[in-house]
Write a structure and sequence with these properties.
Layout: H1 2-20, E1 40-44, H2 45-48, H3 51-59, E2 66-72, E3 82-89, E4 98-106, E5 114-118, E6 124-127, E7 138-146, E8 152-158, E9 164-171, E10 209-211, E11 214-220, E12 224-226, E13 241-248, E14 254-262, E15 271-274, E16 277-281, E17 283-284, E18 294-297, E19 305-308, E20 311-319, E21 326-333, E22 341-351
Antiparallel strand pairs: 1-9, 2-3, 3-8, 4-7, 4-9, 5-6, 5-8, 10-11, 11-22, 12-22, 13-21, 14-20, 14-22, 15-16, 15-21, 17-20, 18-19
């Protein structure tokens, strides 16, 4: 008995030595690999506007097709002042025939950026309308620019240019894909960060549609802005809440509200109610955290919060028990301490019985 106990003690000591005294583990931790991006760049316009930052931006490693980024000083009067950022390109056929330019800017009513493309002889080969909707939010716009005959791009912004924050530039290549004859094709450009909706229609369909037992209807065709609860002067201010009313002939089996949101805090999604009953927070289909659209917001004595400077999809499933035949109300509300957001393409989907509904009957 004593011998067996001694053997057990020695075995335990050996195991302790293996686990805690420097023995090599059986499973090694994964190494961290830096993702190479030789044909992409993120331009920081804040640094370009300051003398100390110009040399830093110039020294940064850039794609071979990007020659320089500079501020072009104008001679306009103060009232008509514009700031122009010039991006000079190198022509490398097959490598930068087409570029994706994504601008990040403060979307102010009187500070819409305009992007143009020019040849060295002064011919304008590309131009956009004024970008943004004047929502007073941090926004982004994605542009596909064919570069044939373009030697440089110019981004003109009214004022001192402080509303323009960053630009993401990447080379595009064509790939083949298959799309169904019966359904809408995918976005014309694949989002590098797997989450944007810039290439998708911004407005809902004009008419209700039915497909495989699902009815889709528009709740709001325009853009709705929500402000923080403490934004208004009145205690009864409800600018942080929006209500949508709709009538149903019969209660559905399940329902879902879908919409796009801009300026949202990823960690504090909108809250939802159906006919006064809380149904929880909405789900946001967020892009990769590497997306430059995430911007930090720091307040004293608080942890940093984030906002997303782009439109993302949101959805909220409504259980059948929360809806009824007749008049219904769906409510969205900003959570406490949130920044302003805007909503668009707000649609309601209803699932009803139909002849090919697949279900399983579970007996008692």
């Amino acid at each position: 008995m004593f011998a067996k106990s001694l053997m057990r003690a020695k075995a335990a000591q050996a195991l302790f030595a293996l686990l805690f005294l420097g023995a090599e583990p059986a499973v090694r931790a994964q190494s961290l690999e830096i993702t190479p991006t030789p044909f992409s760049t993120l331009i920081d316009f804040d640094q370009l506007r300051h003398p100390a930052g110009k040399s830093l931006e110039a020294a940064r490693s850039q794609p071979i097709w990007l020659e320089t980024v500079q501020i072009v000083e104008g001679e306009q009067e103060a009232a008509d002042r514009q700031t122009v950022f010039r991006i000079r390109l190198r022509a490398l056929p097959g490598l930068n025939d087409s570029l994706l330019l994504r601008l990040f800017f403060q979307d102010k009513p009187n500070a819409h950026p305009i992007v143009t493309g020019w040849s060295e002889t002064g011919d304008r080969r590309y131009a956009t309308p004024p970008l943004g909707a004047g929502l007073e939010l941090t926004a982004s716009e994605s542009l596909v620019i064919p570069t044939q005959g373009i030697d440089y791009l110019e981004i003109a912004v009214p004022g001192d240019g402080s509303t323009l924050r960053q630009a993401f530039l990447t080379s595009l290549r064509k790939t083949e894909t298959n799309a169904s004859f019966d359904f809408a094709p995918p976005a014309p450009v694949s989002d590098p960060f797997e989450g944007g909706v810039d290439g998708l229609p911004a407005l809902p369909a004009e008419n209700d549609t039915f497909l495989f037992g699902r009815t889709r209807a528009t709740l709001e065709a325009g853009t709705v802005k929500l402000l923080p609860p403490d934004h208004g002067d009145s205690e009864e201010d409800d600018s942080h809440t929006v209500h949508f009313e709709f009538n149903l002939e019969s209660a559905p089996l399940i329902a879902m509200v879908t919409f796009h949101v801009i300026g949202a805090d990823p960690a504090a999604p909108l809250l939802a109610w159906a006919n006064g009953d809380p149904v929880g927070a909405v789900a946001m289909q967020l892009p990769d955290l590497a997306d430059p659209g995430y911007s930090g917001v720091a307040r004293p004595l608080e942890r940093m919060r984030f906002q997303y400077a782009g439109w993302v999809r949101c959805q909220k499933v409504i259980p059948a028990r929360s809806l009824r035949a007749g008049k219904n109300t769906f409510t969205l509300q900003l959570p406490p301490n949130s920044a302003p957001v805007a909503l668009r393409k707000i649609e309601l989907q209803l699932k009803h019985h139909w002849q090919k509904l697949d279900y399983t009957l579970i007996p008692f």
